[in-house]
Hints:
The structure holds two protein chains of two kinds.
Chain A: H1 5-10, H2 15-34, H3 43-51, H4 56-66, E1 71-74, H5 81-86, E2 90-93, H6 102-106, H7 115-125, H8 130-134, E3 137-141, H9 145-154, E4 160-163, H10 171-192, H11 198-221, H12 232-242, H13 247-267, E5 277-283, H14 292-298, E6 302-308, H15 313-316, H16 327-338, H17 350-362, E7 367-373, H18 377-393, E8 397-402, H19 409-422
Helix pairs in contact in A: 3-12, 7-9, 10-16, 11-13, 14-19, 17-18
Chain B: E1 3-8, E2 12-18, E3 24-31, H1 36-49, E4 58-62, E5 74-75, H2 78-90, E6 95-100, E7 105-111, E8 114-120, H3 129-138, H4 143-150, H5 163-175, H6 180-199, E9 209-212, H7 219-229, H8 242-254
Helix pairs in contact in B: 2-8, 3-5, 3-6, 4-6, 6-7
One iron/sulfur cluster binds near residues 117 and 144 of chain A.
Amino acid sequence: xxxxxxxxxxxxxxxxxxxxxxxxxxxxxxxxxxxxxxxxxxxxxxxxxxxxxxxxxxxxxxxxxxxxxxxxxxxxxxxxxxxxxxxxxxxxxxxxxxxxxxxxxxxxxxxxxxxxxxxxxxxxxxxxxxxxxxxxxxxxxxxxxxxxxxxxxxxxxxxxxxxxxxxxxxxxxxxxxxxxxxxxxxxxxxxxxxxxxxxxxxxxxxxxxxxxxxxxxxxxxxxxxxxxxxxxxxxxxxxxxxxxxxxxxxxxxxxxxxxxxxxxxxxxxxxxxxxxxxxxxxxxxxxxxxxxxxxxxxxxxxxxxxxxxxxxxxxxxxxxxxxxxxxxxxxxxxxxxxxxxxxxxxxxxxxxxxxxxxxxxxxxxxxxxxxxxxxxxxxxxxxxxxxxxxxxxxxxxxxxxxxxxxxxxxxxxxxxxxxxxxxx
Amino acid sequence: xxxxxxxxxxxxxxxxxxxxxxxxxxxxxxxxxxxxxxxxxxxxxxxxxxxxxxxxxxxxxxxxxxxxxxxxxxxxxxxxxxxxxxxxxxxxxxxxxxxxxxxxxxxxxxxxxxxxxxxxxxxxxxxxxxxxxxxxxxxxxxxxxxxxxxxxxxxxxxxxxxxxxxxxxxxxxxxxxxxxxxxxxxxxxxxxxxxxxxxxxxxxxxxxxxxxxxxxxxxxxxxxxxxxxxxxxxxxxxxxxxxxxxxxxxxxxxxxxx
Lengths: 424, 258
Ligand code: SF4
Ligand code: SF4
């Protein structure tokens, strides 16, 4: 990734420290991904993106900025990419997924903060992530307490805009989220100097819907009960990259990959031996490059066939109504779609249980592993009702709390292997 | 053909050899030491000497050092092995198994002779053999002596679950001149309460509960845990071998060398 040295310097990055990350990432990627056999050809694109992760997409973003476009960073799948796109800006998910950034975050945050939040703060303040340097503005949201308070700290260093997210899903909450989206649209107009038109917003809705459909197609191919055309790790990588890639290209690449997977299902080409146990992984997001759990599961005799996560189904399920007659209608259509997402930040959150039960069937799973990042009290607490529902449905269940370090890897392996042995 | 089960735990390595009729032919326990690889080699020599050359018999390895045994034909986790071993030893198809190991404590719900659910303490060494060992060290007694002392103590408690903090609590109890028996009582009480609180999250009501692992020899721990869980916990002299027995049973199931 050394060709980008000047770009990183121009971004004011700490290139020396960043070098350390550039050195470990290829090894980590090689060990986890390139050691897998029979990967779909379509993964070539994603491998390439990872190999240039801090170079290729950042340089595209910088080129766009030179043309006067803005780049907006986000942290949550409730923030509507459509509005950013309609304002002619680029979006980038920013969630940090590496232990590399955690100590930096701990300089600003209590130790008992979830690693995703610590890594994100560390990545910004340590100046070791180009995406965090590029963004012209960061959009936060009032979801969990850790993020809410961390945004105040981020705000000391970068322009922040916060969306006030409802915590319930009554009609007034859906109306409120539509109002928030409208206010956010005004903010985006102010930031970019562009006007969001009805046509522009309808177009943006179409673009993001196409991206969702493509990702959904890819996941559909994973539902096949007799064949596993793609590893969970590869599918996770596709999702992680979707958060910062150009949406049109994302759809195109995901569709190409889905073509291949559908063909693999027809030909019976599987990446795992017959009889491999199928796992639905549920819980907190797995931000790039957090591949730990997938790697352990998929080297313990099982395969992840679906992620009920923000880096999974929550990112693409449900579409936004297209061809809205007015901007107000469009904001409402957006709100309705986003409020169908089921995050543990909401109460009550029975919809998530229904989702998990439905996915367990749709993806023909043998067991459910629910995971939460350490110190995420929302998902940790919600585990109880997930476990109860799985017990009632007779679906084997394992709960796991973990962070970004490797210190518990062997312990996790034992628990996961024992779980797989339990599945028979 | 005989069947060898080797359970390399964090503190002790246990070996069991079973014959075609699942009768125990050989059993041994030795400290794991620093290197599981060396331990594996010592066990191999011992087995050869006893007439059970791993090359001619089926070997299944379990325990956290299971991958360190180059001559094993298969590995199975200690959870599945402890379940099989407990079914063999206690004869219940439905039960709860509590294994207090060196580094971790496992609670296994057994139904139909198989693992139905399990949990492991994943956060720290509270409620494990390691906790007992550290505190015994601080009191300058052996872990066995500590549990014997504990039977004669009462009315003292340690509030901290963290081994490091608990150790300083023990040190200040010593400093205060508290009787050794009472401190030992507090140490065991802390382990028992921690294990019981873990067990309370599993569905063990009305089922027999069996204790396996290194602490099964202590009648005092069995009694204290029985009292806390309000059930008469079963154990047996062989319960510390449960994991290796289970592994040997899986070796028999496997049937031939791979
Ligand atoms: S888990 Fe909840 S708060 Fe976090 S990104 Fe997903 S929807 Fe947003
Ligand atoms: S994982 Fe939990 S604590 Fe961490 S950012 Fe998401 S909701 Fe917040």
